Amino acid sequence: MRKYRALLINDIRHAGLDPVLMAGILGPLALLFLSRFGFSIAEHWLEDRYAFHLGEYRGFAASFLITVIPMLIGMMTGLLMLDERDEEVIAYYAVTPLMRKGYMVYRLFLPSILCTVLSSLYLLFSGIAEISLESLYVLLLLALEAPCFALFLSAFAANKVEGLALSKLGGLFIAGPVVAYFVPGGWQLLGAWIPSYWPAKTFLEGMGDRHLAAFSHFALGLLIHVFLLMIMVKVFIKRVD
Amino acid sequence: MRTSSAFAFDVRFQWRHGFYGVYLVVCAFYWVLMHFVPEVHKEKVMVLLTFSDPSALGLIFAGGIILLERDQGIHDSLFVTPIRTREYLLAKAGSFSLLSLLSAWVIHLLTMGIPESPFSFSAGILLTSSFMTLLSIGVVARCQTINSFILLSQVYALPFVLPLLGYFNVWESKLFLLLPTEGTLRLLQSAYSTLILRDYLYSLLVLSVWNYAVYVWARRSYEQHILMRVGSGGAGR
After folding, report:
1. Which residues, other chains included, contact B164 with Cβ-Cβ below 8 Å and sequence gap of 6+?
2. Are B195 and B187 in contact (CB under 8 A)?
3. What is the spatial distance between Cα A81 and Cα A163, in angstroms, rounded to a whole number?
4. Is B22 within 8 Å of chain A by CB?
5. Which residues are within 8 A (CB) of A84 and not within 5 positions of it... i.e. 6 or more apart?
6. What is chain A's pLDDT, residue by residue, as a tens digit (241 residues)?
7. Subunit contact A83:B147, Cβ cutoff 8 A
């Protein structure tokens, strides 16, 4: 553990200096506050002005916003890893006791832990999400999704410019919860290739008290996330070598 | 001549790094998305979409390219060649404007057909894209990492999205007329209704003035924060 401590202390120091690392924590917290206080204001305003009942979409809003958390943290970590690779910092870590493997373990576990903590806070305090046994499934899938996003950028981009281009594509993965909520019946299979579809669908099934459906979506989602992680870790290692 | 060579190089660079491919996918995504938008809201959503994406794509990408060039030490050797800062900046602004123009037209043709006033629609995209690209360059000169750049660019761009409040009837203010993006929104709306001459001239004027102002700022920032530090190790760090 000691070898990770130096890296963690360095990251915390950088979080103070680098406003975006701080934003990785503050961004999800801002989403939490927005849901807690902004949702009911928007609900009344839309009802008075346009007779639109936002309350009916409470579940969708919660599933949509909670999947933004791993996306935000993961993409930031991915860009940070690309920055470190472009500046050849990873090569330095490789010759320290941390070694390259340790660097990767640290870089992928940190967003995962951060995502679990912030998503739990969101589920507990946003006021628009319901807590159930299925929340644990959702948390696990979200925790796996943050390193998936980080690796999506760092494994497939040759440098930070390509990383930015890929982050544009990654942003489209926000369609996952949209498909999970709005697309009817068998057409939902179209969304199955989007990682964020699975935690959103598990969340929505859990909210609807469909326990078996929630568990099946969780199990399938887990397999897909682990499969994606394994592939991307391999690609990343190959690229660093 | 040097500007056109730099422009061609930038377009090739963007092509090689997958920008055109990514925008092809983005266009396809928006095309599918627009199918689900009710007919009554289509025009408003289309203006919002064109305003926030193809027109503003330079805001993030231009800065990313400059950070990479700095890491690779390209600025160390680039200005030993006859190329001038002005040509370098204009080539960046021009190349991103081309990508913006192409993607905005593709999205528009696929979903809404040919704009009613193609010239003013195109002018809106080109002038907004060059403005955002130059703004991005001014911001990135003050940043060291990609993440800090992304955050700071959003802070700088925030005031320029305020005219959207007026566009969606949330908050009206005459002060929005001073912002270039008020001109952008008027030019983009010309795709669906004829723009009166006064609005047309106002939009071109406000966008041109802001483009010039942000060009001067970007050039100064670039020279002070990047060129003056070239050779200090890590190419400008």
Report:
1. B48, B51, B181, B185
2. yes
3. 10
4. yes
5. A90
6. 666 777 777 777 766 655 556 767 888 999 999 999 999 898 888 888 878 888 889 999 999 999 999 999 999 899 888 988 888 887 787 777 778 788 888 889 989 999 999 999 999 999 888 888 899 999 999 999 999 999 999 999 998 899 999 998 988 888 899 999 988 888 888 888 899 999 999 999 999 999 999 999 999 999 999 999 999 999 998 887 7
7. yes
Task: Report which of A44, A195, A66 is spatially closest to residue A124, judged by C-alpha positions.
Answer: A66
Q: Is A146 on the interface with B (CB under 8 A)?
A: no
Residue type, A14: H
User: Tokens 């400008």 correspond to what residue?
Assistant: B236
- Pick from A171, A184, A153, A12: which is nearest to A84 by CA? A153
Checking ipTM against 0.90, whether it exceeds it is no
The model's pTM is 0.86
Angle ∠(A158,A162,A164) on CA atoms, nearest 5: 135
Helices (H), B53-157: 58-71, 74-78, 85-111, 118-140, 146-157
| The two three-digit tokens of residue B183, written as one number | 């001109």
What number of residues does chain B have?
237
Instruction: Tell me the nearest-neighbour CA distance from B155 into chain A, angstroms.
Output: 12
**How many residues belong to chain A?**
241
Residue B197 in 3-state DSSP? helix
Closest CA to A70 of A42, A123, A112, A107: A112
- Residues A180 and A176: their CA atoms lie apart, in Å, by 6
Tokens of A223: 């397999």
Question: Cβ separation of B61 and A182 shorter than 8 Å?
Answer: no
Domain boundaries, given as residue ranges, for chain B: 2-229
Whether the Cβ atoms of residue B112 and residue B191 lie closer than 8 Å to each other: yes
